[in-house]
Sequence to fold (160 residues):
Amino acid sequence: MSKIAIYPGSFDPITNGHVDVIRRAACLFDKVIVAVLSNVDKQNMFTVSERLALIKASTADIPRLEYDSFDGLLVDYAAQKKVTAIVRGLRVVSDFDYEFQMAMTNRQIAPQLETVFLMTDAKYSFLSSSLVRQLAQFHGTINQFVPGVVAQALEKKFRG
Ligand code: COA
Fold:
């Protein structure tokens, strides 16, 4: 049976840290579905289709990826896609509390679904999408934090 994983998130926008996790996950699973959450309470900068387009362009060289968006509960989406595992990235110890809570809640609802944590490369351990958005807003340098297409998209947003 092929092993399928979901890597869910807001990806507003995708950063080099996310790409790093996707690359690691692609080595472990037969297929990785990068799934954008579309019903967040967060005020998003990019629409779901913009975020998906940026993810696709940033990960074009990584094999065995699928791209999708979902709303509602992650466990329901996972069941619908017949996945084996949820992949989440851990950057620093402080990520663990929130991730542990989510993983344990998901396990209560769907005991057969595993959450797999992958450690982001240390050079991205401080990185987050909101930090990148903030830097872009005030015209700081973001090229080392995000793929080129994302840097261009952010530049366009703030120029507009
Ligand atoms: N590199 C860089 N940044 C990273 C990162 C990495 N490897 N991993 C996480 N982040 C950052 C993100 O950029 C984001 O930063 P921001 O808050 O500054 O924008 C932050 O960490 C968290 O984002 P994300 O990983 O996208 O998680 P999320 O909290 O937005 O969403 C879901 C997590 C989608 C898994 C969760 O909300 C979910 O499952 N929702 C569906 C509803 C549901 O089932 N709820 C019950 C859950 S128990």
